[in-house]
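A quick word before the example. In earlier lectures we treated sequence and structure as two separate objects. From today on, think of them as two lines of the same record. Here is Putative flavoprotein involved in K+ transport written that way.
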Amino acid sequence: MSTHHTVIIVGGGQAGLSMSWHLSRRGVDHVVLERDRVGHEWRDRRWDSFCLVTPNWQVDLPGFAYTGDDPDGFMSGAEVVAHLERYAASFAPPLRQGVTVTRLRRGATGVFTLQTSAGSFTADQVVVATGPYHEPAIPRIAERLPTGLAQLHSSQYRRPGQLPDGDVLVVGTGQSGAQIAEDLHLAGRRVHLAVGSAPRAARRYRGRDTLAWLDAMGHYTKGVDEFGDADEVRLRANHYMTGRDGGRDIDLRAFARQGMQLYGRLREITGGGITFAGDLAANLDNADAVADGIKNAIDGWISAQGIDAPAEQRYTPVWQPPPGERTLDPGELGAVVWATGFHRDHRWIQVPVFDGRGYPTHERGVTSCPGLYFLGLPWQWTWGSGRFAGIARDAEHLAGRITAPRRLRAAEDVIWLAGTAPETVAA
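And the structure line, produced from the sequence above:
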């Protein structure tokens, strides 16, 4: 088996498979290296009740649009895995599973070398399709909690019965934190939730799923370059809602009325307990304001298009938090779930294409290093880039660059080598 390929794709999830589909259609020699197996991230980093937040009709991979009988429903994690397996079977990509890439370098001749668990590979071009969620991020403040208190990251959470008896503190209200808090709450566990600055959105508004309105309004195809603060846009938290039980809002205020204990951001852990900032009211108000702003935009679009859509009464807050900081005794807790996101881990990529925050610098996935591309990053080009909705478009764009005339890539190579230190390009 040859270890040199025209293109090597690192990652066999939805992004890597989409890239492979386009290259296969163009007859480009390539291989997909997947460290585990297809759908790994959906198998091993999701809880039992997990569902997609985006509707099934948005699961539109290249050459494999959703054709099921529930387009407005929301796939479970197991259904996502099965869908990806069927996708791979539909065109039989050159996929090698169980191969971990440990180092990527580019030699002076322009050829990439990849060290892997299956030996060394070389390629003329490389697509990194490993996504943005690599290493669980747990803040160092966690070390101050009592030694015997069970702690786990959201990627390790599976079900309420997995946790020891007692109250549960969930830290973080992005999509994972809000949904895990709901999962525990619905199971009858007493939940303490540290609420951050993540925004929320209504699941449905004026007779349609909110995301269907936003899709019709063109939000999924709006390029990141149309925003004045593109770098900050890429770092924004996603709006929390859920696809569970057919999809619904996540209303933290309603949970509070039902007994969930809400706090502001976790600020400090000392011998006196866990202290939370007094910003809960502001965080809840800001989340509601974002949801209301989305509704305003939908109203404006409905009016401009002359669409006949039923009117809907706006949300009224059902609970208001008390002012000031709050403190929680860790002795009340049986477990802590850290829904605090992930760190990117691109240390294996030894090519200088990263900014000071470790983010790959690129233009629609095309880096300054000729032949090196990224696919599947949040806001890689549009809001849909990191979702099933936009991967096909991004993969097609990169396929066009990969198969561009050789003279164009050679000219890019001259520019790259002229601005790169010799030790950087040495093999």
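Notice the following. The two ends are 23 Å apart (CA to CA). We will return to this example when we discuss secondary structure assignment.
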